[in-house]
Design goal:
Helix content is 75%, strand content 0%. The protein is mostly helical. The longest helix is centred in the first third of the chain and has 32 residues, at 87-118. The termini are far apart. It comes from Paracerasibacillus soli. Keywords: Membrane, Symport, Transmembrane, Transmembrane helix, Transport.
Length: 447
Amino acid sequence: MEQREQFTTRLGFILAAAGSAIGLGAIWKFPYIAGQNGGGAFLIIFLIFTFILGLPLLLAEFTIGRTAQQDAVNSFKHIAPKTKWYGIGILGMVTCFILLSFYSVIGGWIIIYLIKAITGGLNGLSSQQYASVFEHTIANPVVSLSVQFIFILFTIFVVAKGVQKGIERASSIMMPALTILFIILVIRAITLDGAAGGISFLFQPDFSKVTSKTILEAMGQSFFTLSVGVSVMITYSSYLPKQQSLPKSAFSIVGMNIAIVLLAGLAIFPAVFSFGLAPDAGPVLLFHVLPTIFSQLPFGMVFFVAFLIVFLFAALTSAFSMLEIIVSVISKGEQAKRKKWAWIIGIAIFIFGVPSALSYSLLSDFTLFDKSFFDLADYTVSNILMPFGSLLIAVFVSVKMKKSALFEELKRGSKIKYSVFHVWFFLIRYIAPILIVAVMLDVLGVW
């Protein structure tokens, strides 16, 4: 077997892993969920759970991946041979396959809007017209499928080139560009008249608005935005040299994720409040509300184009990781087979995602379990497969991996103290499973 590829630098790994985490969950989902749950109060609860749930799970996946230095399935076979624990890796592959099938649909919508914004198709419309544009866009089957295919094609192209020349190189360009564009957008947003209301909404918590639903949604968001539970981080960390510090890498990725979440909030809420709009618009916030806002600003469409580019970069860097986990397993780490399998699997994902792309057009009247194909895929991944995968990973690390071996792996390239390790192990063994089960019971309507 060929020698397994590795990231050329720690920064390259961090940018790629952060790119996987910083996707639609941080830029699309967080703002509207925070808007629906009181802003600052939700942010504080989200940050707490990110450190007591998301970070420990991220580090757990890192220890599995770098210990074995194999793909998501064979990592479990290596650590727990002659057992069925490798099913966690298979579950991650299935989850990413389904996730990318509908994630690429949203990626296609971003491409449509980017084209419309650049060509002037979004200039000078009313709020009602922007809503109509979104509805008509997703209702056009030819356009929806075409841009979904373009999104998938770019993802295939990057993953086919490998870890160093594809994923690391693309992430090293996209992530800094994403951050710079976001900072520009934030500067513009917070200098708007009335922006203080949006800043206060984000940073001054009103705990009177907190309900059990707020707490559970913040808990779920904390690991959804870090790409944990689907073995993506196991795959990425398997490409990491032994001398690199896992704790430092994990904290860097969590820090970048939090920074992007805050930038997203600062780019959106000040603008929303400046124009007297509601922050709880829901999933259409970025496709309906934001165009309405930007169209009323001097050079507004220029800023909206910048925002869409940020949005597209975040979506693509996450898509790379979803395809990579599957390609890594099936190609068995052989570079000669990577390109072929990237194309085969990518096209298969596109075909599987066709019903999701058509859920708002030709298949709009078709439902399964009272959900469209798109909504069913989203619900299955977000509410069942990802939490279940996170639960299994937490159990595997705390039960099947020796505590001494875990400490030794985390000490490689770092100066982590045993007391800190003990806290992490306690969170993984006891706290994380309890919290994840609570999320799953809530979303499944058990209580």
